[in-house]
Structure formats: C-alpha cells, structure tokens
Design goal:
- This protein is α/β, with parallel strands linked by helices.
- It has a single domain, classed as 3-Layer(aba) Sandwich (Glycerol-3-phosphate (1)-acyltransferase), CATH 3.40.1130.
- It is 41% helix and 15% strand.
- It has ten helices and eight strands.
- The protein is globular, with a radius of gyration of 17 Å.
- The chain starts with a helix and ends in a 10-residue tail after the last helix.
C-alpha cells in the first residue's frame, strides 16, 4: 500500500477524530516538518517502530520547546496529543491554537486529575499521547529523573509505550533563550515498543527505571548520530 493511501486511513490513524481536525493537524505538521528539515537537518532513526494502529504512549526526554514538534514530525503516520504546562494556555489566542492541535494542558504542581482523565480518554479511544516525564525542560541538556505521574497512565489502560530520545534541540533552543537559533542539527531515535502490561508487572521503582533507561538509550543513539558524546546522566 502506498504512503498516500495510508495517509487517508483516518479511522486507523486517529480513530474518533473529525476529518477537519485531522487535516488541520496534518497541515501544521507538514509546515513544521519543512522547517525542521531545512533549518535543523532533522533525522529520525527507526520511525517504523511506531505502531500503525492502537493506543500509543510516547515517552521522551525534554531538551527544548522544539521537542513536541520533533515528536510530531516523527509520527508522520499517526497524530498525537502532547501534554504541555497550563501556563502556555494563559494567552487565550495561543491557548486556542494549542487546543486546536490536541494539546492537553497539565498543572506541574501536584496531580492534575482533569489532564489524567483526558489522557486516559485519548488512549482508550485508540489514539496517541506524548509525555515528557521529566516535567520540565532540561537546564543543561542532561536528563532529569522521571516523575511518577506517567505510571498512573499505564495503570489505567493497555497501550504500547514508545521510548523516544531527542538530541540537538538543546543546542538549538536551550532553556532561557527567548528564541531558537536559525541553524543546527537534531535527531530523534525511536525505541522498541514496551507493552504497558510489562511495566505494570514491575514495581513502581523498577518500571520508572525501565522507562528512564529505555529513553536514555535512545538519547545516546541520537547523540551518536550527531557525533556528540553521551550527556544524559542525571543531575
């Protein structure tokens, strides 16, 4: 089956989402993909590891504001809803734009039951969600310890967990810089899917460690692709 025919399989790619919403997301993704490719020579390693159907929880490291866009460019066959801090929604026009792309607002202070319900609803409907379990952008490019909130999602729904490792986005748009650099290189590596049931069978500490190690391995692969040394140890 050709890629063009697969693209039009909306029920498989984004079950339950309206055609208008899917086309709107696809337009935005196409424009962002051109930007990432032209300015940052964006590369994806093992894109085909993203499941073609069914609920998917993407778990990735968080280096910069570019990261959700890089995940979106990677998941060219599937659309997804990323979680983002609620302060980004305070400016109402920008908040409306984020919501039009399916972004889920979440409070960073304590639990957010509404965001959790929305996330579980997306996964239960067979769609994809992306989370950055560090909870904030890295201040120096190294991975921070994962927060336990991601485990609550896995306890409520069966899905495939896809670890993704991003490298290069910190150098392009580090925390504290008001805007991204015009040029750079970035790579995203996709790891092997992990069934949620496999993680649920572990203790909370072991499950979180398994996720961290899986993402860390993919970050190392991405950094190696860019010719950069490993720099993902915890602070």
């Amino acid at each position: 089956m050709t890629a063009a025919r697969r693209w039009w399989q909306f029920r498989r790619r984004v079950p339950g989402r309206s055609t208008a919403a899917i086309l709107w997301f696809g337009l935005g993704r196409t424009l962002v993909a051109i930007w990432m490719r032209v300015c940052y020579r964006f590369r994806v390693l093992d894109r085909d590891r993203v499941p073609a159907r069914g609920p998917v929880l993407v778990v990735a490291n968080h280096e910069s504001f570019l990261d959700p866009m890089l995940v979106g460019c990677t998941m060219s066959d599937r659309q997804f809803s990323p979680l983002a801090r609620d302060t980004l929604f305070r400016f109402k026009p920008f908040g409306a734009l984020l919501r039009s792309y399916g972004v889920i607002p979440v409070r960073r202070e304590g639990g957010d039951a509404a965001a959790m319900r929305t996330t579980i609803g997306e996964l239960s409907a067979g769609r994809c969600v992306a989370v950055f379990p560090e909870g904030t952008r890295s201040p120096d490019g190294r991975m921070l310890p994962f927060r336990r909130g991601v485990l609550l999602m896995l306890g409520r729904v069966d899905c495939e967990v896809i670890p993704m490792g991003i490298a290069g986005s910190f150098e392009i748009w580090p925390k504290g810089r008001p805007r991204p650099r015009w040029r750079g290189r970035t790579t995203l590596a996709v790891g092997e899917p992990i069934p949620a049931a496999t993680l649920r069978a572990l203790s909370a500490e072991d499950a979180l460690r398994r996720l961290e190690e899986a993402v860390r391995d993919e970050v190392d692969r991405s950094r190696a692709d860019l010719g950069l040394p490993s720099r993902v140890e915890h602070r």
